[in-house]
Every structure is written in C-alpha cells, then in structure tokens.
Amino acid sequence: MQNYHVFISGQVQGVSFRYRAQEKAARFRVAGWIRNTNDGRVEIEVEGDEKAVEQFIAWCRRGPMFARVESVDLVSGDPKGFESFEIIG
Questions:
Q1: How much of the chain exceeds pLDDT 70, in percent?
Q2: Nearest to 72 by CA among 86, 88, 53
Q3: 3, 18, 20, 41: which one is catalytic?
Q4: Is 35 a catalytic residue?
Q5: pTM, full prediction
Q6: Positive or negative torsion for Cα 76, 81, 82, 83
Q7: Which of 45, 67, 75, 79 could form a disulfide with 15 if both were Cys (CB 3.0 to 4.6 A apart)?
C-alpha cells in the first residue's frame, strides 16, 4: 500500500480537474481525497496499490484536456485506510 500527498500547480482550477481525477481514481482503484487550494493549486492525498497509485499520479501530471500542469510535488506518507476517493473542496 502506497500513500502520497500531492500538490499540483498550473492551470488546474476551473478545468474539471477534481471531477476527472475522481473518475480516474475509480478506474485505477485508488482512494483518498482531492480539493482546490486558495493559492490556485490542487491538493490530493491518494493511496492504494503501488502500480495503481503510480498510474494515477502519471495521469495527474497531464490532467484533463483543458488543464496546464506546471508541477507536481509529491510527499510520501503512511496509508490512512481510505475507502473511497472524495472531492472535499
């Protein structure tokens, strides 16, 4: 089980990033949460099987069609036992 706290910068708000990420999380079978931050980034905590988390983060580096991802910062953490992937803000 792998866990990452992720901050994504660029044009990532107002482009359906959170909703598409929730769809991708279901596809890759990862759990956690996603929200917009006040400084224009998207923040995610994601966990699951190592390969699934890596695939999800690879998608985050591209984002949805109208996003322009400039950077993705990862911090490894301890799994929390999330059961779903929720949009929290």
A1: 100
A2: 53
A3: 18
A4: no
A5: 0.95
A6: positive
A7: 67
Q: Of these residues, 3, 29, 35, 36, which one is catalytic?
A: 36
pLDDT (mean) for 49-68: 97
The domain locations on the chain are 2-81
- 38 is an active site residue: no
CB atoms within 10 A of CB 41: 19
| CATH number, domain 2-81, options 3.40.190.10, 1.10.10.10, 3.30.70.100, 3.40.50.360 | 3.30.70.100
| pLDDT of 89 | 77
Say which residues have a Cβ less than 8 Å from residue 53's Cβ, sequence separation at least 6: 2, 3, 4, 28, 30, 46, 47
